[in-house]
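Here is one chain, start to finish.
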Amino acid sequence: MAQVDVKTIVSNFENIDLNTVFLSFFIIIFAVILSKIVAFLLTKISEKTWKHRLDFKSIISISNVLIYSLAVYYILASVFALSLNQLVIFSGFIGAVIGFGMRNLFEDIAGGIIVTMEKPYQVGDRIEMGGYYGEVKDIGLRATRLVTPDDSLVSAPNNLIFTQCVASGNSGSPEMMATLDIYIENDSDVDLAMKIFREAVVTSRFVYICPTRPVVILLNDYPFYKGLKARAYVNDLRNEFIFRSDITQRTWNEFYKRGIKPPKTPIMNYGKTAE
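Its structure:
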């Protein structure tokens, strides 16, 4: 039975004419255009609904997979007139070919499908992937595109999901945790410094505070200086860097007024100079 189906598949592909090629090409182009239109509309809608922005953007990658899958199925089932059994056999054959000759491409596509279904991250998240940190702009079948803090567009292959750890800063939520370190001289008034630091955090117009999103100020004692670390949530992940700058500026303005100074020695982090 399988041999008969294989022969039928071969005969179907032998009968390909120019019209069949043009029709298949048209369907692929239509699928690409449709996916772009859907992504554009969902992005526009998401930008107008702050609360559900990431929910709408998460649909983009799912719609891409669905549109391309339907396009391929329609080409094979309608244009080339393959039966269900023939489709299964053909899919297995293509899988074997891809596995031997196009392994990286297959892994990228498999990674894209896994990311779409399991959602370790989604469009709109802030993640660290492939040594880069930024906001996920698009999850394609082959690559995830990130916009870094310096506005660079980075394409990271989806197969990294199998080989590297991917850290998500917000896991689908519009708010995310942001940490901030400030260092002061050893002889500074630590209690006053922590009070000023906390006040700067909780009064920031970008902070998000609730019972499950508290503000935490930590004190670290180093040999030549003291370190204060704030752990707080920014109300919108896009305000992460404005949030950090706002707190840093207002904290140091108040520190200088109260005589709290930065350390005179270089700041070290586990034996390395901190960036």
